[in-house]
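Lab notes, practical 5.
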Amino acid sequence: MQQKLKELAPARSKLIALSRDGRLYAIAASKALQAKRNDRNEQSWLSYIFGTNPGVDFFELKAQGGLKRGEKWTGVSVGTNHLLAVTSTGRSFSLPLSPQANSHRQLGTRQEFSPPPGDIPAEADPRFWPTLTEIPSLTGIQIAQVATSDRSSFVRTPNGRVLGFGANEVGQIGLGSNAAVEIVQVPVEIVLAKGYPGGTTLSCLDIKAGGSTTFFTVERSAPGKAGSFIDLLACGSGISGSLGNGLWSSANGTPSRVKT
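Output from the prediction step:
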């Protein structure tokens, strides 16, 4: 039955699973929590995904107000304490995974969270926060992809535009070397063509992020030149050479081409 899973995203002490039929689940990673499972209806859903007798505790995550008819989850990305997800209609949602989930406004909301009562740490409890909230400032904007790093968030539109929000203390959002703001509180468009000659057209194809470093795969074309080219851009923390720009820089706030 494993073929019913589409994507897995590890979080702190829990695992997020996206099924092929568009459902989202939070699964406890702790054996102690797995042993406490007692909801047979939820177990039957997990058996449907993983096979009979999965032996783990889990919880299905829902959208606030529910999804529209025929709408389903198509993508998910998990940061240290937060989660972003996108639906088949291009709506983007966020979910806290611990009380620290919105420390840098990486949820795209102004929500604050308190530790839950009881002896189960929030970051380990799949039921800590059961409902995803649509990101208000992105309502009406169709999203094709969501991506997260430690405390930052990114979304990509079908036409290759990228917006970012959350922590930016080492330039991981990619707003440029002159953007010294450490917290980007609302989604802001990232201009990926800053390091290219004027007239160059860039379209983002993919985003990958982790820690405090962000990578953008882009397709570029120049006026008067036939064809297009694929580049990999990087920004944020450059410690140990992770930016790939051949410089001894510890950080870079402008998405720059990885040379090789």
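Observations recorded by the TA: The helical segments are 31-34, 40-50. The first strand starts at residue 5 and ends at 11.
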